[in-house]
What does this fold into?
Amino acid sequence: MSDPSRAPGVLHVVATPIGNLGDLSPRAQAVLRSVDAICAEDTRHTRQLLGHFGIERPLIALHEHNEDGLAARLVERLQAGESLALVSDAGTPLVSDPGFRLVRAAREAGLRVSPVPGPSALIAALSVAGLPSDRFVFEGFLPAKAGARRERLRTLASEPRTVLFYESSHRIEEMLADAVQTFGGARPAVVARELTKLFETVLDGPLEALAARVAGEADQRKGEFVVLIEGAGDDVDARLAEGRRVYALLSREIKPSLAAKLAADITGAPRKSLYGQGTPDT
Ligand code: SAM
It folds into this structure.
């Protein structure tokens, strides 16, 4: 029953370890201990984590298949004064994990959503990769199908910022082979595996050497991965190549002068270097 005298509760978004239990912060423990219920991606997994810290709270399963339907009911519970925590199996919720719909619904209802920051594999990998980290792009998981995956990689080939991907053991070998084809074998990259766990490994080198190492050594294909690829930088040649690629695509559909203007706006390549280039068959 909702008590109108009770202030609305808070939704705490709590990061949990990506491998090392010691990474559950004291504040995360205190918040998890204090809430009325904990929304968890996999309740069995979270029960184990909580058990390790002697925390016993009711758990609510919230995953990609039920989040849409459940968000409204959870918002009602928050409005009625209950406080809730949201956790995922590992790392920070919403980062390639469920929670976006619940957080959006809570914010739209004017409720307080408060972070308890902590581990995330992408930031952990970036912090040790030794690649430019002032600007970076997180692409999450690439599409599982080879064609869609290659197409996504192609759109990133001239990206000037460091690009980060999540990858699984099933696809790491294929993903690196595709990356060599798209970014070129010489592009500096890092494969960060099993961070904070027993077999933590951070390999760096040109993409081609990394792909060969992972293909040739079964152990390097085990576990969880973050792949980081250095950006093309503000390389004039890369910008020009991308400008020509975009111009070629656009000029199939619209008149060349407009195609050149748009391609220049999109890629930063000089318009004059594109217009009148003909239509390269990319
Ligand atoms: N929300 C999580 C976070 O903040 O990092 C990510 C969840 S996503 C479903 C799981 C993916 O994150 C894995 O497939 C892997 O790509 C990456 N990952 C998680 N833990 C990792 C670890 N210890 N080392 C390397 N990558 C990891």
Remarks:
- The mean pLDDT is 93.
- The chain has ten helices and ten strands.
- Residues 254 and 260 are 10 Å apart (CA to CA).
